[in-house]
Amino acid sequence: MAVSLNSYLIVSAILFSIGVIGVLVRRNPLVIFMSIELMLNAVNLTFMAFANALGSVDGWVFVFISLTVAAAEVVVGLAIIVAIFRTRKEIDIDEMNTLKG
Amino acid sequence: MLAYTPLMLALPLAGFIILGAGGNSLPKWLVNLIGCGSVALAFILALTDFFAYGASSAPYDIVLWRWVTSGTLEIHAGLLVDKLSIIMTMVVTGVGFLIHIYSIGYMGEDPAYERFFAFMNFFITAMLLLVLADNFLFLLIGWAGVGLASFLLIGFWWRKPSAVKAAQKAFVVNVIGDFGLMIAIFLLVGKTGSLNFTDTLFARAGLFSAGDQTTTIIAFMLLIAAAAKSAQLPLHVWLPDAMEGPTPVSALIHAATMVTAGVYLVARCTAIFSAAPYALETVGIMGGASALFAATAALFQYDIKRVLAYSTMSQLGYMFMAESVGANSAAIFHLTTHAFFKALLFMSAGAVIHALHGEQDMRKMGGLRKKLPVAFWSFLIGGLALAGIPPFAGFWSKDAILGAIFTQAGATGSAWEYVLWMIGVITAILTGLYIFRLIFVVFYGSYRGAEQKSSGGRFAIHEAGLAMTDPMTALLALSIIGGFDGVPGVDTIGNYLQSAIGLSPAAQGSQLVILLFVGVLAAAGGIFIAWQLYLARPFRFTPNKNPLYQLFANAYYIDALYNAVIVQPIVQLGSGLNTLLETWTLDGGSRAIAGGVDLLSRALRKLQSGYARNYALSIVIGALLIVAFVVLNH
Questions:
Q1: B326 and B504 in contact (C-beta within 8 Å)?
Q2: What residues of A are in contact with residue B611 (Cβ under 8 Å)?
Q3: Is A53 a member of any domain?
Q4: Looking at CA atoms only, how far is residue B614 from chain A in angstroms?
């Protein structure tokens, strides 16, 4: 049985919303990171669903690119988190507010 | 030999470059050698030009290189040798050389010795360029160059604020003249399509015709240029102040050569002026007014050099009067004799000032005849030549001018030209009066200054050294014999110049004798009045409240008038614009913009809370808003 495009989109929307809520409510930067990954992959899912439905490979290309960029971004992000942890000995995101205006 | 003429310019220019670039590392004798030697060689070249040119009448044009090509307009960097420029180069380099020698003595103790000679050489270059140029644009460069040299040399003692002010004043007034010359050049290009003298001034007859409006405007613009350079009314104000410069500068630039550039320009542009009768008449009015004005202003000056400055202005007025009646050669004749005796007078004034350690106030002189015999005799001969006593140089040239005006007046029957002649005679009386007032007050009577004691306790006023007295002696000789080349009836110089600038009208027969007699009488009368007032009775300087005296002594308050009418309004306008435009509009405007941005950013920075989740939330809200917008507009 072929899964309909709408089902993919609904799953994708649910995943994205979970990611958004995770980013907004959690205080541990690692969890926030995982939520961001969730949002990215929700979008990737959308791309693949559309690519499948339209019979085009354009969506695949976007997914490859965003996967690559996401991998690089995770490396940089984790490095920043480690660096912050080394200097401040704690990792609560609400304590990192020294850049306020 | 004429082909070597460019060297005449190149030598002083090389002197200027060497002395200007490396003069302070050269020994003094080498500075003297370069400074004076380059001018001496230029003088020799001028002499060879004189002999090589001979009796020829065709202008000899030397094209150095093609300079400007624009459409059909072609301007060469070129030199033109004709009889007028030969006379001018001989005066400039000859008198210039003597004054360079004099400067060795006068400027000997100045720390900026080589700079002085560099500027003097630069002046000689620019002046030669002015008189040798074969087109108007090249002439303009020389014209502006001598103005620059004048500025640099008036302000030579730049630590003196008065010298700096005088230099600026001279420069500003001269630029008015440069402006006039430039307008004339633009109009000439428009009218004739060329700037070469060969195509314009020496071209076919009828190129400039009477009644042509453009020609008249060109002539008036040239007149403005001549008035500014030659210190004629109403652009004369810079010359008396220019006496702030060292005395050799006053002798060279502000008596013998640069100030005569206006006379040269009018003589050179005879073709234009003779086609512009109104302009020519204005030349006469200007010359006559300046001659009388300056002679009266010279009567009661205290500064020995200011008397001579006003005298120079007055004598230049004579030259312009001559040119207004077509007596160009008489004007050039007076120019040469004036260069001799006025340079002599300035040099002897310099000798007096030098002996009194910089004192220029006649009230603090007196009785110097025995102490400074060379200066006294120079002053006496120069004064006699200036006043116009035969057989000295000034007598022949002044009477050539007065004779020309009177003859021309008789020929045309013009009442105005008779008035001009009367002005000339009255000015001659005043000339004798003011110059002999100076001589009697400075050299006779008793010394009125502070005691000048040397270490030995002796009276320390002493004659200047040979470097100063030798050139004075040479000019003294020239002031005696310099007029014989223009003796009426023979008039060697007039006949020589005829092919270049035309023959002057000259008095003949019994009329000539009467006119010579009137001239001598006028000069002798002036000297007699001076003798009565300043020598026959014991004389003492006292403050004089007589309004006429005050009017003359303050040179008719023209400086104050210009200050009130022109300078102060411009200063007021400037300070007003400073407040309105600078402080309020430009500064105030930029301050207002900065203040506005500051207020805005104070409000906006509240958004930067520092909580990453706030930022994330605002991103989400923004994204939702965009989605909502797209969906709703679908």
A1: yes
A2: 93-94, 97, 100
A3: yes
A4: 8
For residue B255, the tally of other CB atoms under 10 A from its CB is 30
The answer to whether the Cβ–Cβ distance between A23 and B616 falls below 8 Å is yes
A1 touches B: beta carbon within 8 Å: no
Interface test with B, best of A9, A35, A36, A97 (most B CBs within 10 A): A97
Distance from CA of A82 to the nearest CA of B (A): 17
Task: Collect all residues with Cβ–Cβ distance below 8 Å to B124 and sequence separation of at least 6.
Answer: B12, B38, B39, B42, B92, B93, B96
pLDDT given for residue B205 in this prediction: 66
Q: Do A24 and B616 touch (CB under 8 A)?
A: yes
Contacts of A97 in chain B (CB under 8 A): 609-611
- The verdict on ipTM greater than 0.90 is no
Q: What is the pLDDT of residue B457?
A: 41
Which of B180, B328, B122, B162 has its CA nearest to residue B245?
Answer: B162
pLDDT tier at B245 (50, 70, 90 boundaries)? confident
pLDDT of res. B460:
63
In-domain check, residue A35: yes
Indicate if the pLDDT at residue B456 is higher than 70.
no
Residues B271-300, mean pLDDT to the nearest whole number: 90
Can you state the angle between helices B509-531 and B415-443, rounded to 10 degrees?
A: 40
Q: How many DSSP H helices and E strands does chain A contain?
A: 3, 0
Q: Which residue of B has its CA nearest to A16?
A: B620
Structural domains counted in chain A: 1
- The pTM of this model reads 0.79
In a domain, A81, yes or no: yes
Closest Cα partner for B107 from B369, B412, B350, B403? B350
Q: Name the residue among B269, B270, B263 with its Cα closest to residue B232.
A: B263
With beta carbons under 8 A apart, name residues in chain A contacting B604.
101
User: Which domain, by its residues, includes A71?
Assistant: 28-91
Mean pLDDT for B348-377 is: 85
Q: What is the mean pLDDT of chain B?
A: 88
- CATH number for the domain that contains residue A79: 1.10.287.3510
